[in-house]
């Protein structure tokens, strides 16, 4: 990262944004727009076209037309691979531009965004480019005289709705495998962070993706998102976001064409530290960043810290030391540890959750204040709460903010009970020097991802998905392709 280059890019004007429909950038039919407010300083960056149901219908129609034409869906796998590799190359060529644009839009600290946004997106497109010609059909073990063939075919039109915290990374997790499988896509970014995905869409066109294969509609979830979820010509909907919205999407599917809906709905992830953890100081550093990076706006954030009582006080002191050392500030300063909260609305939610936790008996050990390292922006110092009881709201519900809830435990069985004591099941962490215990905990914890002696970092080669109220289906890895492919049997009498 180069601070001088970042400073140059941060001051570039951002043009009013349009919808991408059938390879053309167009305004919404209504002519309405939505202001884009930067969480860094509260200033308006530009406007987004405010799509309504008519615009969504046009985008879905373009996706259907492109799919049925075969321009992409029936393109030779080797040729699709080349296009996806070109997209990855263009992301890499525009790495700094995409990173800075995304940070201006959602406030993630640049040190994290640099790797997690364009860096991750490019790697994701390259990974699925290499998957394109490695998805094989099957020949079934049939009796003599018959031939059973199992074809894998693209599902058709895929709707993608992504959140504001890591739009480019999460968008790539969904768009790249959907395209690799031969589908056409309609993307609805969050109204709180659309800019980097709109730029990605142009790069896809520049790379040679045929018109209509990727369409982008910006606007509100209540209008554009609901229209996508109810559209009868959408075959699959994939979504990352809140459980409340996930339920609305399932309802919309049930009331329309019963499209398959895949949901990643966040969590209340436990991070469990046993007294035999190999290095308590390192565990404290990683655990603190596991909740405080990106102001806690990470779906797998380790927001519940469960510490064995024998080392509880020592470990909490180590975490407090880390928390108090973190610099909250301008997210486009390379020395900043924690950037801005994504919106004023989210900052108010964080403060409300913190206030209720204190009213319910939790004790604030540090942080939690609204601060102003940049005037007009949304910033909060990292908060550590102890004396948290399992039944408290702060121990049960996702905050999506920089608030850590600490609870002690005595035995391994109690740790498992606490870990599984919420309705979620996305991620978890276990710190122990006992290999047998590590394996027992991995099996006992109800979560899609269990980290051992680390927190965060699984790459594109392994799946990410939740259980229980954290959703269904998987992003990342070869398994992500399963969502975007249908199986068709050919039963042939010889």
Determine the structural class based on helices, strands and strand pairing.
alpha/beta
Number of beta-strand segments: 21
Molecular shape: globular
Under the CATH scheme, the architecture of the largest domain is: 3-Layer(aba) Sandwich
Largest sheet: 7 strands, mixed
Describe what you observe in this structure.
This protein is an alpha/beta fold and 494 residues long. 38% of the residues lie in helices and 20% in strands. It is built from 15 helices and 21 strands. The chain has helices spanning 3-10, 53-69, 77-93, 95-106, 110-131, 167-180, 195-206, 221-230, 243-254, 280-292, 312-325, 344-359, 393-396, 412-419, 435-444, and strands at 19-21, 24-26, 33-37, 44-49, 138-139, 146-154, 157-161, 184-188, 214-216, 236-240, 260-264, 270-273, 304-308, 363-366, 370-371, 379-380, 383-386, 403-409, 427-431, 449-452, 485-493. A seven-stranded mixed beta sheet has the order 14-17-18-13-12-19-20, sandwiched between helices. Strands 9-8-7-10-11 form a five-stranded parallel beta sheet, with helices on both faces. Strands 5-6-21 form a three-stranded antiparallel beta sheet, with no helix packed on it. The radius of gyration is 23 Å and the shape is globular. The mean pLDDT is 97.
Would you kindly provide a brief summary of this structure?
The protein is of the alpha/beta class and 494 residues long. It has 15 helices and 21 strands.
């Amino acid at each position: 990262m180069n601070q001088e280059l970042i400073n140059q890019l941060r001051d570039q004007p951002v043009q009013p944004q349009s919808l991408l429909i059938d390879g053309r950038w167009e305004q919404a039919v209504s002519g309405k727009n939505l202001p884009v407010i930067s969480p860094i300083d509260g200033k308006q960056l530009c406007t987004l076209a405010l799509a309504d149901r008519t615009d969504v219908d046009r985008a879905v129609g373009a996706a259907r037309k492109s799919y049925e034409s075969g321009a992409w869906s029936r393109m030779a796998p080797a040729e699709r691979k080349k296009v996806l590799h070109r997209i990855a190359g263009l992301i890499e060529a525009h790495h700094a531009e995409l990173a800075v644009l995304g940070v201006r839009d959602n406030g993630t600290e640049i040190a994290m965004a640099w790797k997690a946004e364009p860096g991750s997106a490019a790697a994701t497109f390259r990974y699925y480019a290499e998957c394109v010609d490695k998805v094989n059909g099957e020949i079934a073990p049939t009796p003599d005289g018959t031939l059973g063939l199992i074809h894998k075919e693209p599902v058709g039109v895929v709707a993608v709705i992504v959140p504001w915290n890591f739009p480019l990374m999460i968008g790539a997790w969904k768009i790249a495998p959907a395209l690799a499988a031969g589908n056409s896509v309609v993307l609805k970014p969050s109204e709180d962070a659309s800019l980097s995905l709109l730029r990605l869409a142009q790069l896809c066109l520049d790379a040679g993706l045929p018109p209509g294969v990727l369409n982008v509609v910006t606007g509100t979830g209540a209008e554009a998102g609901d229209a996508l979820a109810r559209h009868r010509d959408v075959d699959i909907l994939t979504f990352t976001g809140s459980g409340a919205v996930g339920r609305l999407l399932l309802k919309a599917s049930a009331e329309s064409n019963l499209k398959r809906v895949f949901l990643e709905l966040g969590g209340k992830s436990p991070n469990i530290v046993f007294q035999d953890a190999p290095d308590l100081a390192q565990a404290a550093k990683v655990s603190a960043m596991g909740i405080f990076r990106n102001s806690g706006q990470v779906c797998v954030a380790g927001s519940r810290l469960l510490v064995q009582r024998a080392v509880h006080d020592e470990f909490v002191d180590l975490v407090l030391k880390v928390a108090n050392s973190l610099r909250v500030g301008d997210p486009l300063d390379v020395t900043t540890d924690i950037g801005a909260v994504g919106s004023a609305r989210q900052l108010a939610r964080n403060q409300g959750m913190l206030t209720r936790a204190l009213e319910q008996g939790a004790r604030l050990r540090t942080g939690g204040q609204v601060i102003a390292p940049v005037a007009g922006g949304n910033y909060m110092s990292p908060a550590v709460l102890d004396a948290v009881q399992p039944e408290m709201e702060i121990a049960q519900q996702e905050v999506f903010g920089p608030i850590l809830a600490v609870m002690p435990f005595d035995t391994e069985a109690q740790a498992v009970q606490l870990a599984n004591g919420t309705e979620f099941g996305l991620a978890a962490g276990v710190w122990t020097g006992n290999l047998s215990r590590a394996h027992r905990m991995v099996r006992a914890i109800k979560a899609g991802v269990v980290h051992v002696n680390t927190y965060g970092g699984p790459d594109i080669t392994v799946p990410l998905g939740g259980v229980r109220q954290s959703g269904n289906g998987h992003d990342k890895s070869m398994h992500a392709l399963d969502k975007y492919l249908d199986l068709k049997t050919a039963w042939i009498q010889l």
